[in-house]
Amino acid sequence: MKTLHLQLRFLIPLLLTLLVAALVALPVLDSLTLRWFARDLNNRGTLVANTLADAINEAQMDGKTWRVQGLFERALQDERLVAIALCSPSNEMLRRTDGFPPSLDCAQARDIAVQADPRLVVEGGAVHVGVHALGTPGPGVDSLVLLHDLSFIDRRSLDTRRYLIAFIVLLGFTMALITMVVAQISWRGWVNGMRGILRGEGLVRPLLAPPPELQPFASEVRARLRDLEDEYRRSLDLVSVWNPERLRSLLLTQLRGDQVIVVSNREPYLHERTDDGRVIVRRPASGLVTAVEPVMRACSGTWIAHGSGSADREAVDAHDRLPVPPGTKEYTLRRVWLTEEEERGYYNGFANEGLWPLCHVAHVRPVFRESDWEMYRHVNERFADAVAAEARSDDPVVLVQDYHFALLPAMIRERLPRATILTFWHIPWPNPESFGICPWRREIIEGLLGSTILGFHTRFHCKNFIETVDRSLEARIEHEHSTIVFRDKETLVESYPISIDWPEDTTGWVPVAACRQRVLQRLELPPDTCLAVGVDRFDYTKGILERLHAVERLLEKRPEWIGRFVFVQVAAPTRSALEEYRAFQQRIHGVADRINQRYGRLGYTPVRLLAEHHDAEALHELYRAANICVVTSLHDGMNLVSKEFVAARDDEQGVLVLSRFAGAARELSEALIVNPYHVEETADALHRAATMPAAEQRERMASLRMTVRENNVFRWAGRMLADAGRFRLRERIAARVQRHTLPDTAEDEAPVHT
Ligand code: F6P
Question: In this predicted structure, what is the pLDDT of residue 734?
Fold first, then answer.
């Protein structure tokens, strides 16, 4: 339609011009043809006169004038000659043929013949009047008047007009045709060019260079397109209520049911052999597992992880797979076995003694050993092989989890160039100076840039990563769109705040009062106790020490709380193979003992340290029983304990004290935000929380609950997968374009990775 419109705009003026030209040309043409024919007839007349002159003169001289009549009759056999008359020098008409108009005399004929248009209309039509002198005039004769039929001129003129009109029409038609073809070709060129720009835009490298005439528009269009993409991403954030159904439908529509593979170090279910010989299934204390497991249940697929449980090997099939969760079997767990040496170098060594303190900047010195690095690389290779083995197609969606697998994205990319790789870094990314001390910083960054999308919890961590890349590699960074192009491949660096599976159905929940009663009973605490809880892995980044100091300071500053304020710390043992952790755990025990000695008395122990694994139900009960939940991480990617506490409080009571250095603080601003390094401030926050009126608690908790409910884990996964879906769609289109534009080479070329 647009093409037609465009062509009409060219054609209509063109055809009008031709019409005007024809209208002007026809009268001119008529007069020209008349002149040509008049000249022609004059020449013919002279010839006839010359031819007849001698015979006429002879007849005149012989007195046989009747022969003249015979000569005229013969001459009239020329169909164009209508009549002839013979004039004397005194304009007397001596003889004439039958058809000669009686009203025309010699003098009149002479007058007409010298005019520009020597035409005379007689009864039979228009005639040309010519008066021709006889070469050597005989006695009494002077000239011949020849009347030529002009109707043939009209006929010819009509024919000429017809030819001319036909010619103009044909010319117009041909020009219109040529215009249409040229317009069509150039329109297609434009359209294809623009399509190329649109396809090649954003996170996909341009496949076809835009034609030169489109170059000026290309960057403009690309900029607009990216803005639209950003708007689209933001609009996704605005759509409320993400749930498993919505995630499933996103997988079916945008990812067309493509295979989803998750890779993490920690597995979601461990099989453990107990001392009495039984095999039990345990859920590890892991924020990662808390977040990713509901997503996997929604989208099935395969989860590849280190099989670290003591009875794990007994639970798998011949391919090291088993369906999980144990009762419902919603997805496949594929276990990868590591030797002690591999685990020591890769997990304890490089991941937990190197990257963990490096990224948390928690004032524990990172340890970098060459042997650990080698093992880290080796184990990443092994997991890359496992991904390739589990992939049912050459383009699965692979979700790489965490700092254990910084090299994995690039390794998967080598094995499965068409895979869509979403890497999520669950811990903070430090500033470039801090990260700069890592001897293998380039390799780590290059490994991560094998990802299609690299996700962090906060924009702040994205910014740190991008700055680190800026200082370490030759890469093109587009700050506006948060993308990095390295070796012709583009990675989107985006923030996706992780969360929990919000409990919509609370019908089976034990009421808060009952939970409180049970917990207080179990801990042998009086009903009026102000119960504060901390729930963490026993890790030095969690600020457990600072928390204890704050509790101690509270009791010191406000002795009225002695006997009434109790702090329960659940500390799930973790990474106990590492000296740093063992020392830390001992230290915490020591500080807790000291506080208890200082402020405890018969029937009152202010600090309860529960250094053992607690299952989800036990934690849920504890959250519901507590007056305060204390999260004082020195640095934390997100911290899901804070969100679990909020989710557990459907009574809209309870106060969250939250470290400003946890990613969660950016979302949960209605918590009491503290600097855990500032003991005084944290102690005051504990007092404020303990004395907060129920109405204020309700107000804050209601708002927190709204936030966590909306920003649940399905939104976290949904946003990432929706972005992945868009990239895959682009890749499919790009591949199609490539096939159509480069038929000979398309099959051989490696597909474009976004
Ligand atoms: O906090 C980051 C994180 O990777 C969590 O996602 C996870 O719970 C934990 O660290 C890892 O702990 P572990 O070493 O016990 O698997």
Answer: 80
- Using one digit for the tens of pLDDT, what is the confidence trace for 304-328? 999 999 999 999 999 999 999 998 8
Provide CB contacts within 8 A for 662, sequence distance 6+: 631, 633, 635, 636, 638, 639, 642
232 DSSP 8-state letter: H
pLDDT digits (tens, 9 = 90+) for 113-139: 888 888 888 877 888 899 998 866 666
Q: How many CB atoms within 10 Å of residue 636?
A: 30
In DSSP terms, which residues pair with 270 in a beta bridge?
282
How many Cβ atoms sit within 10 Å of the Cβ of residue 642?
Answer: 29
Averaged pLDDT for residues 676-686: 98
Residue pointed to by tokens 């093992």: 375
HSE (side-chain half, CA atoms, 13 Å) at 647: 22
| Residue 397 DSSP SS3 | strand
With beta carbons less than 8 A apart as the criterion, state whether 125 and 150 touch. Answer: yes
- The amino acid present at 251, given as its one-letter code, is L
- Which numbered atom of ligand 1 lies nearest the CA of 291? 6
Angle in degrees, 0-180, between the axes of helices 544-557 and 679-690, rounded to the nearest 10 = 70
pLDDT at 102 over 70: yes
What letters, b where the CB count within 10 A reaches 16 and e where it falls short, cover 106-145? beebeebbeeeebebebeeeebbbbbbebeebbeebbbbb
d(CA 130, CA 113): 5
The one-letter amino acid at 179: T
Question: What whole-number distance in Å separates Cα of residue 475 and Cα of residue 477?
Answer: 6
Rg (alpha carbons) of the chain, rounded to whole number:
50
Note the pLDDT of residue 750: 37
Nearest to 677 by CA among 551, 576, 550: 550
Residues with CB under 6 A from ligand 1: 265-266, 286-288, 402, 426-427, 574-575, 637
The CA distance from 160 to 155, in Å, is 8
With a cut of 90, say whether residue 387 has pLDDT above it: yes
Q: Which of 185, 194, 3 is nearest to 737 (CA)?
A: 194
Ligand 1 atom closest to residue 265's alpha carbon, by position in its atom list? 16
Q: What is the best residue among 537, 619, 638 to mutate for testing ligand 1's pocket, by most ligand atoms within 8 Å of CB?
A: 537
Q: What do you get for the CA distance between the two ends of the chain, in Å?
A: 35
SS3 632: coil
The three-state secondary structure class of 574 is: coil
Measure 576 CA to ligand 1 centroid, in angstroms: 14
Q: For residue 330, how far is its CA from the centre of ligand 1 (angstroms)?
A: 23
As given in the structure block, the two tokens for residue 283 are 């859920």
More confident residue, 603 or 94: 603
Atom of ligand 1 nearest to the CA of 290: 8
Residue 745 has pLDDT above 60, yes or no: no
Question: Is the per-residue pLDDT at 752 higher than 50?
Answer: no
Q: E strand or H helix at 404, and its extent?
A: none
Distance CA 569, CA 606 (A): 11
Looking at residue 324, its pLDDT comes to: 97
Three-state DSSP at 282 gives: strand
Kindly report, residue by residue over 471-511, the tens digit of the pLDDT. Answer: 999 999 999 999 999 999 999 999 999 999 999 999 999 99
Q: What are phi and psi of 108, to 5 degrees?
A: -60, -40
Question: pLDDT at position 754, please?
Answer: 33
Residue 284 CA, closest ligand 1 atom number:
15
E-assigned strand segments in 247-317: 260-264, 270-273, 279-282, 302-306
Q: 540 near 584, Cβ under 8 Å?
A: yes
Share the mean pLDDT of the chain. 88
Q: Is residue 172 very low, low, confident or very high in pLDDT (cuts 50, 70, 90)? A: confident
Among 291, 309, 251, 297, residue whose Cα is nearest residue 402: 291
